[in-house]
Design brief:
Blueprint: E1 7-9, H1 15-28, E2 30-33, H2 38-41, E3 52-53, E4 67-69, E5 75-78, H3 82-91, H4 101-108, E6 111-115, H5 122-129, H6 131-140, E7 147-158, E8 164-167, H7 183-192, E9 202-208, E10 221-224, E11 232-234, E12 241-244, E13 250-253, E14 271-275, E15 282-287, E16 290-297, E17 302-312, H8 315-321, H9 332-347, H10 356-367, H11 385-389, H12 393-402
Antiparallel strand pairs: 1-12, 2-6, 2-14, 3-5, 4-5, 6-7, 7-17, 8-13, 9-12, 9-17, 10-11, 10-13, 14-15, 15-16
Length: 405
């Protein structure tokens, strides 16, 4: 996919605004793993029918590498953004890292809060109303869609060793959003090009409110404006920011503190980053309410605010979208049948007997095309193959020992 050029703003945030956002982050006290983002939206369809009963210990809760516990922790389902995690696992991200499955999981489980009523937070409302934010937003929206509909902000944190994998943001369509269906399916709908008549443009404004300014920490923002071109890399300078339509422009971040290991966290557990209070001004990773050995001072966090607004051609269109009864929903069955028929026509395969898990993976394989690492001699993270593909002792020996994973 190809999107509009990213708008870069060196002084997006004032020192006072950055300080206020740091304070707001600490007021939340608990930042959830990004695997738990559906806790907030609680979509009507948490899965497409692939759910299987959860396995209690001593068996692994969700042994399939692509599946995690659902919100009720009664079933295993495809992770909400399995399109992101799967691509990172199999390629090592745009940096082409070769690392075991457990390390990759730790790298991907960054932390944050997802807020869908931004007007309830004065510091955020004031920030978005500023001329700098408004200018950045309107430069990113299409020229014929300059009516902004602010709908979300996130505070997103990476601890040392973590990254932001290659992805597009949660896509919005007239009749299909993250409140109705899984986000990986929305990504497939966008990549397919079959639902463009219902697509809604949006802007994502990313601002860094950490204090540090250290190029050795890396953590650069990376984006692609051309599917075949090299990515553009932008360092995360304090108080700087950028505006893109993240649902059209593929983007990522390189590893923050690349010389340090990420916290080893379990996809089957509820992982959180908790503030320890002003005395230590530090944060500790918890798993299922138990503290882990991973504690970080606030000054070691890569801290961002991500503000989102939809772009509409008129106030009337904006008002209509925000009245649920006036927007006809696209049924999940219709989405799946449209994609299935298109795949069958293009591949000459009959998918009618496939399980929903097989169909979901096929949909991702067929449509979602994130860039492969360009500088890696082997653009595959072969260290995860034993986990993803299975295999006995012989293959384990090859993957772990001969390939030095």
């Amino acid at each position: 996919m190809k999107g509009k050029e990213t708008t870069l703003t060196p002084n997006l945030l004032s020192p006072e605004e950055a300080k206020a956002l740091n304070g707001l982050m600490k007021e939340f006290k608990v930042l959830n793993s990004n695997l738990a983002d559906s806790k907030v939206t609680r979509p009507l369809h948490e899965h497409i029918g692939e759910a299987v009963p959860i396995q209690e210990p001593p068996l692994s809760l969700c042994p399939h590498p692509y599946m995690v516990p659902d919100l009720n922790r009664t079933s295993c389902i495809l992770a909400n953004r399995i399109d992101i995690g799967r691509h990172y696992m199999t390629t090592g991200g745009f940096m082409g890292l070769k690392e075991p499955y457990e390390v990759a999981v730790g790298r991907l489980q960054s932390f944050g809060v997802y807020i869908f009523n931004p007007s309830s937070y004065p510091v955020v409302q004031k920030l978005f109303s500023s001329s700098t934010f408004q200018s950045t937003a309107k430069k990113t929206c299409p020229v014929d869609k300059q009516v902004l509909d602010p709908f979300q902000f996130n505070l997103i944190v990476q601890v040392p060793g973590q990254t932001v994998a290659t992805h597009i943001d949660g896509v919005y369509f007239w009749g299909a959003t993250r409140f109705e269906v899984p986000q990986w399916l929305l990504a497939a709908m966008k990549f397919s090009g079959l639902f463009e008549a219902q697509f809604i443009d949006q802007i994502q404004i990313v601002g860094y409110f950490h204090d540090w300014d250290d190029d050795e920490r890396k953590g650069d923002f990376v984006y692609w404006n051309d599917d075949e071109g090299d990515p553009v890399s932008v360092p995360p300078k304090p108080r700087s920011g950028s505006g893109i339509d993240g649902s059209k422009v593929i983007h990522a971040a390189n590893v923050y503190y690349p010389d340090r290991n990420p916290p080893m966290t379990d996809k089957n557990k509820q992982v959180e980053l908790r503030y320890n209070g002003p005395a230590s001004d530090s944060w500790t990773v918890f798993e299922d309410d138990s503290p882990t050995p991973y504690t970080y001072p606030t000054g070691e966090l890569r801290s961002t605010i991500v503000f989102r607004a939809r772009c509409f051609e008129s106030e009337e269109a904006k008002e209509r979208f925000n009245k649920p009864e006036s927007v006809e929903k696209i049924p999940l069955s219709s989405i799946l049948s449209t994609l299935q028929r298109d795949i069958e026509a293009k591949t000459n395969k009959d998918l009618s007997e496939w399980s929903r898990l097989e169909l979901g993976i096929k949909i991702m394989d067929h449509y979602i095309k994130y860039p492969f690492p360009r500088d890696a001699i082997i653009p595959i993270n072969y260290c995860v193959l034993e986990k993803l593909l299975g295999g006995g002792a012989f293959f384990g020996f090859i993957f772990r020992d001969l390939l030095q994973c």
